[in-house]
Write a structure and sequence with these properties.
3-stranded antiparallel sheet, 9 helices, 6-stranded mixed sheet, 15 strands, alpha+beta, globular
Length: 240
């Protein structure tokens, strides 16, 4: 096999993360996987330990990258991430999780949806392209702020899993517009965050940069290279 290099796809799922390395012709040349427990309770909470997820992603990526090299496929040249939709994690200024991530099917979103509906948020339906529901990230954030305003205010940012991993790879959080639309905070016409929604939820300056799916968003840093077992300078692309 030619050592021309390979492309890596990362899938961050609800119970595990998997990495597949492909040849430029589309042949799977290596795989990596690491699982983690889903945290649920009788009240309807559904969470993941975000630090544990990041650790699992590092393992899966390093496994795939190592196997690709051993198979003669060469180094990873570029990677992109697909991540579970509406999950959200509060982080500090170094992009470290401050608590668990709240998942799509966390029923506390019902409280958040009711709060947003009472505040007239249905008016955002047209620009978001989605109906207001309890599963969207905005509803999760409204519920979090309502339950613990002090903790909500202490977070430096709130990141979905794609932008969280990109931040740890490159040092800068970037989210694909396709994932950002699932948050109910994106203005689909401008392909950027809705200014009024950010203001109302106290999110100005606390969300990732938005990029179009398939565009180059950065390169793996020296720190990211050591953590994920990738070559420094590996291209990172916005996923979907």
């Amino acid at each position: 096999m030619s050592a021309q290099g390979c492309l890596l796809g990362l899938d961050i799922g609800t119970t595990g993360s998997k990495a597949l390395a492909f040849s430029p012709q589309g042949q799977v040349v290596a795989r990596g996987y690491q699982d983690y427990p889903l945290l649920v309770d009788a009240a309807g909470a559904a969470e993941l330990d975000a630090a544990q997820v990041l650790a699992a992603v590092r393992v899966a990526v390093a496994q795939a990258a190592s196997q690709a090299r051993e198979a003669g496929a060469g180094p990873v040249l570029a990677l992109a991430t697909a991540a579970q939709g509406e999950a959200i994690t509060p982080v500090d200024a170094s992009w470290r999780p401050l608590g668990p991530s709240v998942l799509t099917f966390d029923r506390r979103g019902e409280t958040g949806r009711a709060l947003l509906a009472a505040a007239g948020w249905e008016r955002h339906t047209e620009q978001t392209g989605l109906p207001l529901s309890w599963i969207v990230t905005a509803a999760k954030l409204a519920a979090l702020r309502n339950a613990d305003a002090e903790r909500y205010a202490a977070a430096h940012a709130f990141l979905c899993y794609e932008d969280l991993v990109v931040a740890h790879l490159t040092g800068r959080p970037v989210i694909s517009d396709s994932l950002a639309q699932r948050t109910w905070l994106l203005d689909r016409r401008r392909r950027n965050w809705d200014a009024a929604a950010q203001q109302e939820l106290g999110l100005v300056g606390r969300l990732a940069e938005v990029a179009s799916s398939g565009t180059r968003v950065g390169e793996v840093s020296l720190v990211g290279a050591e953590a994920f077992g990738l070559p420094a300078g590996t291209v990172v692309v916005a996923g979907a």
